[in-house]
Amino acid sequence: MTKKERFAFVLSYFEEHAPNAETELIYDNPYQLLVAVILSAQCTDKRVNMTTPAIFKNYPDVEALSTATFEDLFPLIRSISYPNNKTKHLIGMARMVVENFHGEIPSTVEELITLPGVGRKTANVITSVVHHQPNMAVDTHVFRVSARIGLTTNATTPLQTEKQLLKYIPEEKVHIAHHWLILHGRYICVARTPKCGECGLRPVCKYYHSLVKGN
After folding, report:
1. Would you give the DSSP letter of residue 150?
2. Considering only Cβ atoms within 10 Å of each terminal Cβ, which end of the chain, N or C, has fewer?
3. Which residues make Cβ contacts (< 8 Å) with residue 165, sequence separation at least 6?
4. Annotated catalytic sites, by residue?
5. Which of 99, 102, 121, 159 is closest to 34 using CA atoms?
6. Residue 43 among known ligand-binding residues
7. 3-state SS assignment for residue 22
């Protein structure tokens, strides 16, 4: 099977079985999504969704967040992983958005990565989810799933994975393919014991054919 054929099967499968896949983070606007994604680093979406309502109640927009003090914001996110750094990042991000971008969340990867707490993955999430730009955010799920299925070959970094995926996924499908791979990794192709028996990608999955079926 060629790489092109494998991608075609995977995309077709997800289009049929998960046509409306989307982020599990709860948000109402780009500001709220950016806050949620910054908080989600090495933390579950479920925990983030339990935490953000209090933040958004106290700081309903980026202007309000830019006036926050560490002492006031920290208690609201102390249950999140790395709360010290994330508190500083959120305040710094908000202040920079107000000062450098007139209070508007930037819409390009290049601008977003200038903000505190925003790396390439976060910037790709924002531009993909909000603006449907063809940017592929690679988290641990996307990295793992892509390698197991065989969508990527010898990719050792998120950027290598991103580039290989973009080579074969049509631009208009990149924004939803990001969610397909994340959700598949979160619920089926899990890290320790992947649920191959429930997986509809078995016919084209390199992991299944080499390690599971071969035993």
Report:
1. T
2. C
3. 136, 138, 142, 146, 151, 152, 174, 177
4. 121, 139
5. 121
6. no
7. coil
- Digit-by-digit pLDDT tens for the chain (215 residues) are 899 999 999 999 999 999 999 999 999 999 999 999 999 988 999 999 999 999 999 999 999 999 999 999 999 999 999 999 999 999 999 999 999 999 999 999 999 999 999 999 999 999 999 999 999 999 999 999 999 999 999 999 999 999 999 999 999 999 999 999 999 999 999 999 999 999 999 999 999 988 765 55
Neighbouring residues of 79: CB distance < 8 A, sequence distance ≥ 6? 47, 50, 51
Residue tagged 């996110």 (tokens): 77
Nearest to 45 by CA among 80, 19, 20, 17: 80
Asked if 21 and 179 count as a contact pair (C-beta separation under 8 A), the reply is: yes
The structure's pTM equals 0.90
H helices present in 59-119, as ranges: 62-66, 70-77, 83-100, 109-112
Alpha-carbon dihedral sign for residues 50, 53, 58, 62: positive
